[in-house]
Every structure is written in structure tokens, then in C-alpha cells.
Fold:
Amino acid sequence: VHVVESGGGSVQSGGSLRLSCEASGYTYCMGWFRQAPGREREGGARIDNDGLKQYRDSVKGRFIISQATAKNTLYLQMNSLKPEDTAMYYCAASTRLTLCPYAYNSWGQGTQVTVSS
Structure:
């Protein structure tokens, strides 16, 4: 399964962006990760195989993760963006149920999000 992200860009602080991720096949769980320059990759939000949505504390109340019924398209609505949200955002998917919710075996190339103050 291949995953491809889209929707990144540059916005001012307080703005919004919507990221999309399309997987080429069925997935059991998907998530969004991000990596800022000089920092380790961190989880942003995910949807587990039972539909439960999880967010890291720093994005709760601002980001909304959603998924198409077919489970092969994932979205991340990002509101009230802050400069510290600047990062490369990666979509990840798992094609094996046993990997969910903490491991993923398909990763996209990433889409850049830049938030200016």
C-alpha cells in the first residue's frame, strides 16, 4: 500500500490548513506524524482500528482527524495554527491489524506545513 499526502502550505499564525492522505489499498488504522527541523518525529493524531481518535496534547482542540468510510483516505483539519506547528507532516497507515494502533508499515513522503508569526 502506498500513501500520498497533500494539502500542506504556508499560512500565518491563526490560519487553517487541511491535509489529505490517500492510501492505495485498505488500511486498518492510520495516523498523522510530524517532524520539525532538528527534532524527532512525533505523533500528531491517529484513528485506531476501532475508530477511536487520539491527539497529542499540543494539538487537542485545534486539529481534527477524520477518515473516509472506505478507510483509505485520511484528513487532518488544522485550525488556529501556531509557528510551533511548522513541520513536515507524514501520513502513516497499517495494512496489518496486529500492528494497530502503535505501528505502521506504510509511510508517505510528507507534506510541508509552515506557519509564520
Remarks:
- The CA atoms of residues 13 and 112 lie 15 Å apart.
- The radius of gyration is 13 Å.
- The chain is about 0% helix and 50% strand.
- The first strand starts at residue 3 and ends at 6.
